[in-house]
Amino acid sequence: MNAFRERNGAPLMAASGGNHAKGDGMSKAHYPALALYVGGQWLSRASGGEIPVVNPANESELGMLPLVGKSELDAALASAAAGFEIWKRTSAFERQKIIVRATQLVRERAAEIAMALTLEQGKPYAQATREVLLSAEIIDFLAEEGKRLYGRTVPPRSSEVLSQLVARHPVGPVAAFTPWNFPANLPARKLGGALAAGCSVIIKPAEETPASCMEFVRAFHDAGLPPGVLNMVCGRPDEVSSHLIASPVIRKVSFTGSARVGRLLGDLAAKGIKRYTAELGGHAPVIVCQDADAEQVARASVVAKFRNGGQVCTSPTRFYVHHAKFRKFCATFAAEAKAIRVGSGLEEGVAMGPLVSFRRLGDMQRLVDDAVARGGKLLCGGRRLGESGYFFAPTVLAEVPPEAMIMHEEPFGPIAVLQSFATLDEAIAAANGLPYGLAAYGFTHDLVSAYRLGEELEAGMVGVNHFGISQPETPFGGWKESGFGHESGLEGLLGYTDVKLFSIAA
Asked: How many whole angstroms separate alpha carbon 73 and alpha carbon 96?
């Protein structure tokens, strides 16, 4: 793998600490020196102090992250306001050219960015590489669609009205907040939509995983994005969000994260009557009908469930399997889960890396212990692996009573719950029984059942006979308490625009 290079005054340094007990496959891993980005300038120090970024595979310190204070936030706001005046007047064609230059740099640097992503987040390097490349595709699609933000004419009722034009304009400076589970993909969705529409952005990635987003920002800097159009800050989340959202400069807020924080940010946005997009997670059900191939579906389900350690908002978690196929499904699912190789994301052949933090280990154990105490069956896993790094075994529970916490709380980790059902009505009712509605899945070869799953499952995204529902061209968003608004697809672009009617009379 290529060594990191020094670029644009932000030197890159080797990570400290040794390898995980299972081995990284490298004697030295590399991680970029962290910096914030305001007004086209890199800030290696800021008034809010600094915190360490930790490798979740071996708990070593990767680097120190500067944190903003009020002065840097005010500078970012002023920069975004000035940048918006430049960027909204830049033609969609010129914007697209600059954005595509940035994504080309991302592709050229994909190996380096993926290395940083794996070091700070933990997922296997191959998965990190796919995430980086897919993120470039997401941005490219949105930039291309930005050239087609068509308006329309509306025939007037009165002869005195010469023309009625409906047009879309960029909404204004955006405050964007992203979590740690997909530290390249989630910023890409927000940056792609906002920049393609003509908005300026202040993005705050998760403090656990800042380097991935930073390297995307660096690509835009190197591609010639005008200063102020894009700013990146990190800091104490409540202080950063409250300061940015309260500012009259910010006209749109985009957030991906927990429902609890999403409600708080939604309240802040509502006070200023600001546009708000929120993707707040889920607790995705999977319905496996009697006619489905239980073993084939179980194998595919294990891959989808334990990808990124289950730290995926669309991760399938509650599996409702027809009782005639339940035993076979359980046996195959548990066997496949036990076979997953867990370890450092830099180790060859590893399919699942660590969780992102020590706290997440306690969250997983609490849910497993509660389910077993209430009568659920533990088919495999259910415990931490090793003493170094934040590894938790792929865990499968079965026949868990409905009052167990795991049946109501999104685990956001490597835990699957297998339940049986007798009728499709029963399964759909159980699947819809929670206040979440981000993703849902079903498996059947019967056309009527497939149609019912698509129509009756209460989720913003429904996949029948596959789990690959999220693509650059498709809208990503949920129903009910899983949020509102969309990212990716044309809908994700439109969310960064305002509609204007321009009516001209003689």
From this structure: 28
